[in-house]
Amino acid sequence: MLSLLNENIFEQCKELGLKNVPTIWAGIAQKAASNNMPYGEFLRQVLHEELVDKHTRQVESIKKLSALSPIKTLEDFDFNLAQGVPQSQVKELCSLAFIERKENVVFIGPSGTGKTHLAKAIAYKAALARIKVKFITASDLMLQLLAAKEQGKLKYYLSKAIVSQRLLVIDEIGYLPFTADESKLLFEVVSKKYEQGSLIVTSNLPFGQWPDTLGGDNALAVALLDRLLHHSHVIQIQGDSFRLREKKLAGTVN
């Protein structure tokens, strides 16, 4: 009889998409019987365990699709070595309220000063909160945009990979210059996210040099920055590269 009951519960849970209930209901039922637990409390506990399991699976799926590996956390970031990084502001950003307000974050500073680490740490917080997030370097983003355009799938790519993400992290804008066509594609990405979602952008260039990296198109650079910075938090980081500093301490460079 119990075997038939288990089979019926399994089949109904499968149809309802309740993945965890078939394995946990019996243990909770035994506990409920021993403690004279009301039926309502028994049901609440079963549903609670199912919800916890569902949230865990959602987080793992988001992390897998986010391309955040290797994971960086705020706890691993050394604020003592990073000059000019406002610790309180960064921690406030980790509350993720800026995502709810559809605001952007821009990290500006020399190579190796922790911009990518901080961007990933905030994005990881978002993933843990079951917020859809995608991390991508500017060069890889451009390769994917150009491929989608060549295949006649640009609109689909923008919808699937850009608009659908509540948080999009674009790393290393400015390390390689864009052509005129690439600059227009980047502008389209920023325009699609404007007031519809949030961006985190890292760059080694001050804003005054962005026209140079955007195909020399000053008007496009102004329009792009206008959308990027309208609702934004700009964090400027100073100092030497963490990686170079470590090598100096190790004595491998002078």
The sequence of SSEs as H and E is HHHHHEHEHHEHEHHEH
How far the N terminus sits from the C terminus, by CA atoms, comes to 78 Å
Overall body shape: elongated
CATH superfamily of the largest domain: P-loop containing nucleotide triphosphate hydrolases
Question: pLDDT average, as an integer?
Answer: 90
Q: Which residue ranges are poorly predicted, with pLDDT under 50 across at least 5 consecutive positions?
A: none
| Beta-strand share of residues | 5-15%
Second CATH tier, the architecture of the largest domain: 3-Layer(aba) Sandwich
CATH class category name of the largest domain: Alpha Beta
What's the total helix number? 12
| CATH topology (level 3) name of the largest domain | Rossmann fold
Structural category: alpha/beta
Number of domains: 2
Query: How many DSSP E strands?
Result: 5
**Largest sheet, spatial ordering of strands:** 2-3-4-1-5
What is the percent of helical residues? 55-70%
Give a brief description.
By secondary structure, the chain is α/β, with parallel strands linked by helices. It has helices at 2-16, 21-34, 39-66, 87-93, 97-100, 115-128, 138-150, 154-163, 180-193, 210-213, 218-230, 242-250; strands at residues 104-108, 133-137, 167-173, 198-203, 232-236.
Describe how the helices and strands are arranged.
Layout: H1 2-16, H2 21-34, H3 39-66, H4 87-93, H5 97-100, E1 104-108, H6 115-128, E2 133-137, H7 138-150, H8 154-163, E3 167-173, H9 180-193, E4 198-203, H10 210-213, H11 218-230, E5 232-236, H12 242-250
Parallel strand pairs: 1-4, 1-5, 2-3, 3-4
Helix pairs in contact: 2-3, 7-8, 9-11
